[in-house]
Structure formats: C-alpha cells, structure tokens
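for the record, two folds in this file. i put them one after another cuz i was lazy. first one right below, seq on top, structure tokens after. the second one comes after a little note so u can tell where it starts
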Amino acid sequence: MSWKTGFRSLYYLGAPEPDDPVLVPAQTAILVIDVQNTYLERPDRASLSPQEQHRYDLWTPFHERMHGTVIPNTARLLALARQNGIECLFARIACHTKDGRDRSLSQKMPGWNNLLLPKDDAPSQLVAELQPAGDEIVVTKTTDSALTGTNLRLILHNLGIRNVICCGIFTDQCVSSTVRSLADESYAVIVLEDCCAAATEDLHRKELEIINMIYCHVMSSDELCKIMALAK
C-alpha cells in the first residue's frame, strides 16, 4: 500500500491522495527523537521474578523492532542524508540536575514517564548506532515535545528548515508530541513509519493513523528516498 492511501483514520477515508512533497535538501532536516540507552537496555531475564519476566516478554517485540528495523533504517537514512546535504538533528530526554528538579511535571509523575536521566549519565545518551557526526546538533529536553522544551524552534529557523522528517521513539508519545508542535509552527512534517516504534505494534499503528494527513504525512524510509532521489 502506498503512503498516499495508508495509515488513514476514519477522518480521511476517501480524501484525495496528497501530492508528493517537494523536499529541497537545504530546507529539510532529519530529526531523530529519544533513541537512548535507557530504552534499549535489558536485564538478564533469568534473574527476574515471574511477574518481571512477564513484563520482559511483553517488551520483547519492541526490542526486536528497534534492533531489526528502526535502528538499521534510521542509520541508513542518516548516512544518505549526510551524503546529500540534509541536516541531521537529534533530541534526547535528559535533566540538567542530578535529582531531576528541572524536569517537567509529566516526567515527575509516577509511572512510565517518571524519568530521571541526568544529562551526563550513560542511560541518557543516544545509542551507539545513532550518534551525531561532526557538528550535528543535539537538543536536550525535559518535555515530550522536542520543540516545546528546547531552542529547536530557533535552530530550525536559523538553519532555514521548512521540512522536518521525524524518526524515533515512542511513536505515541514524544514523536507524536513533537510532530504536533512542529505542525502548529507550520513546518511540513513527515514521519517514517519504519524508523519509529511504540511499546506495541498496535499503539504504533493507531498513533500513525491519528497524526497522518493532518499533522504530518506518514511514509516508509524507502518511499522518502524515492521522493528525494536518495541512492540506497
């Protein structure tokens, strides 16, 4: 199925197919969101309690997708972008204080989003496969949206960027929040479905249906490479 007809919610069933976007390399940036060590590290399963092993197993498809699909595709895309003069930017969750007192309220509340990731500690760092090269920019955020919690808005403006291609995790959280913020600032946004992941495939697909056609266009990395004539 083509990106022009895929990932459509009820709102857009029967809507006209969009035109191919015009993506001038000098006005286009890749933004990789929150692919950090903390989300890819796993304990030894045998050392866990039965309840913890159950939770471990529930997360296994996410880790398989990250290592088998998302990270390889994103690394390939970054290499092509660098060869074609496309800006590569990165966002990560990290706090400036050891006790996390500078975090946003959502990152202090109990549960999944209760993240304490001091900026210099290993868990907060980007994974080895997706490290910035040269003087590529990394923004540090204590919010879900990479635009709201950083000076990324100013950076994109100063770079002359009009189109932002989003990759990363989690599709239904920080990726979605960033996409919505970018759209509200009138950036043209593309989300690469095979360069993103959520906790489950169902959450991933549902969120892509929610944001597609209104806040962004959802496509695969191969479809983007074809539109931009990027050699594989």
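(here's the note) second protein begins now
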Amino acid sequence: MAGHSQFKNIMHRKGRQDAMRSKLFSKLAREITVAAKMGTPDPNMNPRLRAAILAARAENMPKDNIQRAINKAAGAEGENYEEIRYEGYGPGGAAIIVEAMTDNRNRTASDIRSYFTKSGGNLAETGAVSFMFDRVGLVEFGPEAADADAMLEAAIEAGADDVASSEDGHEIYCDQTALNEVTKALEEKFGEPKASKLVWKPQTPVAVDDEAGEKLMKLMETLEEHDDVQNVYGNFELSDALMQKMAE
C-alpha cells in the first residue's frame, strides 16, 4: 500500500514494535472500546469489534487486556472519544491521511498541524486528498498461510478484488461492504487472519526522491507515535535504495 506498507515494513525490520508495544496496546484498547460502545460487545455480531480484536491478537495483546477494553465500553467511567480524519500534504507533495481518536479535538489538531508544518508539508481541509485514495477492505495473512497462487484463488472465490503477495505475507483487498464476508470465507480456509480492516488505498502511488522520502518517513513515524493517532496512510513510493538504508 505504497507509503503505508513501506513504512510498516521498515518499522518492523528496525525492531521498533517492542519499544512501542505499550503505546500500541493503548491504541488497540481504545479501538476495541470504541467499537464495543458503538455496537454490541459480541464480536460475532459486531464486525468492527471483531476486526479490532483480530488486530490486538496479531500484536499478542493479552486476553485480559482485550476483555478489559470491551468491559470499559459498558462502564460510565469510559472516556468519550471522537473520531477525526486529517488530510494534508507532506514533503515532495505526497498526500497523507491521518485517522485519530481523541477526547480533545483542539489539542490533537494543533499537534498534527505542527508535525506537518515542521516536516515542510501542510495540513489541508478534510477531502483535500482523500479523493486520491479508495476506501477499501483489507485482510492480511502471514506468508505461512498459503502460497501466492492458493491465496489468489481463494481470495477471488471469496469475492475479493485484488491480492498483493510478497515475502512479508498476503494483502487481500475487497469492496468495503464485503469485508466481513471475505474475511469469514478466507478464515475458514486459512485460519484467523492477522488483520481485517478498512483502509485508505492510494489510487496512483507517487514516486518521491530520497530526500523527500526520508522526511516523509520521519513525518509518518512522528504521526504514528502520537497517542491519539490510530492510522496513517500515504500515497508515496520510496526507492529500493532508501528502503534498504532506512531498514538498517
């Protein structure tokens, strides 16, 4: 998924996941609580909650933490989070979408705007760049789930639109309305997926030079580390040389 996938791969290879695990668990718990509060606390009847639990399990979040986050949705003491999407342009003119959950809109907006400005980019109005992306469903499996041909065949049979397989695993894309059905069909064949979620997929990834690429990755990392930010997407592509350099 262009900048988004490249960023995730680099962070994984750099071993950043362990250092950020506590913060990651907090973000995963927030999504579980919000999903449970918006629907039923039963993941079999609440696709968004089920997706949030899958994401938590993929990061080895303890069962007690997951259940505590679900229970929090029923309690009166739970915080009220507002979901906000920010859009803007990063270095090199790359389009970036930031999804956040916050209990203080002004604080979060101020922080996100400053990150864009310091990177040489700028925050824009909602809708300014999202037209360059498609809102689609994404199901992820590890490379051990199946070979590329078997995954492609099963995905097409399940109603998916596209499959991207690599040494890191399989990314299956589908219409956002078909995500639940595609996930269940693939789960029956390959077991529980690593993720099942709605994402912003760039329509036409834009190649950026290495100088802009380094600044973009730094911006993506800064955004990801913010407590209120849940997801960050970009429509840029980095050179293989820069990918290799940043993964070291």
